[in-house]
Amino acid sequence: MSAQGDCEFLVKPKAWLITARTLYPADFNIQYEMYSIERNAERTASAGRLLYDIFVNFPEQPVVWREIAVITAALRNDSQDKHAQFLKGVCVCVSVLPLAQNIRAFRHILKYFMYIFYILFCEGNKVKENRYFFSHLCVCCRSYSELLQRVSELCRYMSATDSEGFARCCAQIVTCCTLVLFHSAFHYVSAVQPSLFQGHASLSSCPWVLLEDLSSVYTDVEVERKHTHKKRKLADGREKTMSSDDEDMLAKGRGRHIVVNKAEMPGWAETLEHFRTARESWDLLHSHQSLETEFIKICSAWKTELWMWFRIFLTDMIIYQGQYRKALSSLALMSSLQLQQNQNQNSLSSSSSLETQRAIIQLASCHYALGEYRESLSPLLLGNDLRLVPCSSKSILPFCLQLMLACFKLRAFTDNRDDLALGHVVVLLQYDWPQGENLFLKAVDKICQQGSFQYENFFNYVTNIDMLEEFAYLRTTEGGRVQLELLPNQGMLIKHHTVTRGITKGVKEDFRLAMERQVSRCGENLLTVLHRFCINEKIILVQSLP
C-alpha cells in the first residue's frame, strides 16, 4: 500500500487519528480531519490548538482560510448563539498559544490576525464618511511603519471630528497597532538577541546591549552631572527635588540618537527602524485612555507578561526614554522571568547565560545614569559574570572599564583630595591608550599641586611605559620632587628609615628597583592585568564609591 493510501485509510477509522497524526505529521488531510472532529464537538481548547497547528504547518491550504473566514464572520456577527460563541472562543485560543517563541509561527499568526483585522476594519465599519479611508487603510500600506502612520492619522482625525466613530473603531485600531508593535518589537529583539530564538548560543548570535554612551569618558571632568538632584520651583513657590527620571520624562518627546557600529551589525538600519516603529506603536496605544484599556485587555489575554522577548523590548524602550528607575524594575521582572523559564526547562543553557549577562550590564548602565555609582559597579564586580563574558568580549569589556572610569573620575578631580580614586583612574586610563592621555596629564597636574600621592597598588597594575616614565620624572628635581608612596606599606617604611636616620636613601633605592622591575612588565597583556585589577580589588573598588 502506498504512503498516500495509508493516509486515506487512517482517516476513516477516527479512533486511529491520534496515532495517525503522530505517524504522518506532514499530511494535511489527517491533521484537518482531527480538527474537524474537535470543531464539530465544539471542544474549544483542543479545536483552537489544532487550528493553530494546521495554520502554522499548512498556511497555503485554501480550506484553512475558509475556516478563518467562518471565524471572522462570527466575530463580525453580534449573534450570541452557542456555535458563534464557540467560534469566537477558538479565535481567542489561537491568540494565546505560545507563538512568541517560534518565528515561523509568529509570522503566520500575524498574517492571520491581519486578515481578521482587515475584514473587521473595512467591512465592519459603520461610519459612512470614513468608509473609503478604512477600506484603503490596509490595502494601500506596503509596510508596517506605513500602516502605523495611516492609523495614527486616523486617530488624530477621528478623535478630533468624530468621537462616536472613534469609540466604535477603538478595538480595531488597537488590534492594528498591537500587530505593528508585536511585529516590529519581535524583529528588533530577533536582531539584538538571536540566541533567544535559536535555542543555542554561538559566536554569531552574541546579544547586542543598549547602554549609555560613554565615549566621552576621556574628556574633561564635569563638576555637575546631569543626574545630580536639582531644585525646581513649583507654581505655589515651593521647591521640589527633581530626580533624574523626572527630568528625562520632560525630555521624553526629544529623540535620542543610538550609536551602532555599522560594520559589526549587518542590517543595522532595519533593526533601528523596527525599534522606532515599535516605540511609536507603543506611544500610540497609550495616547488615549480607551486605546490603552483595549490594549491591556489584549496583553492580558495573550499573556504577554510571559514573553521574554517582549520584556527585552520594553526594557530597551524604557532605557531609550531615559526612565532608568522604571528600567531597573523591568530588569528585575526580566530576571524573575528568566529564572522561571530556566526552572521549567530544568537547565541553564548557554543562551540563557547570555541573556543574564545582558541584563547585568544594563543594570549597571542604569545605575550609572542615575548617579548611583556603587550600585553601578556592584553587579559587574561582585558577581561571577565578569569572569565569563565581559572580560572576554571585545565589546563589553571596554564598556565595563569606561563605566568604572566614569564613576571614579568624578571623585578623583573634585576639590577634596581622594588619592584612591585618582589611582584607580590612572590604572583604568591604560586601556585604549593614548585616548585618555589628556585626562592622565590632568591627573599628573593634580598630583603636582598636592605635592604628594599615595596609591600602594601602583606597581601591581600600572604597566604603561609612558605613565611609568611620567611618575619617575615626578620624583626628580625637575619634576618637583613629589613625594610618591606607591609601594605597599611605604608609609611605615619611610617612618622606619627616618627613625634609623637612613632618611630617604633606602626608600629611593626601593622605588628605583621597583620601577625597573615594572618596566620589564610592560609587555604583559593589558587585558589580563586589568582583569586581575577588577577581580582582586573588587571589594575596595565598590566600597570607595558613595
Automatic annotation (TrEMBL):
Source taxon at top rank: Eukaryota
Primary localization: nucleus
Where do transmembrane segments lie in this chain?
A: none
Which BP terms from GO are recorded? snRNA processing
Pfam families recorded: INT10 (PF21045)
Keywords (alphabetical) are: Nucleus
- A GO-annotated cellular component: integrator complex
The answer, when asked if Nucleus is one of the entry's keywords, is yes
Q: Which family is it part of?
A: Belongs to the Integrator subunit 10 family.
The record's note on quaternary structure and interaction partners says: Component of the Integrator complex, composed of core subunits INTS1, INTS2, INTS3, INTS4, INTS5, INTS6, INTS7, INTS8, INTS9/RC74, INTS10, INTS11/CPSF3L, INTS12, INTS13, INTS14 and INTS15. The core complex associates with protein phosphatase 2A subunits PPP2CA and PPP2R1A, to form the Integrator-PP2A (INTAC) complex. INTS10 is part of the tail subcomplex, composed of INTS10, INTS13, INTS14 and INTS15.
Q: Which protein are we looking at? A: Integrator complex subunit 10
Q: What is the lineage of its organism?
A: Eukaryota, Metazoa, Chordata, Craniata, Vertebrata
- Name of the gene: ints10
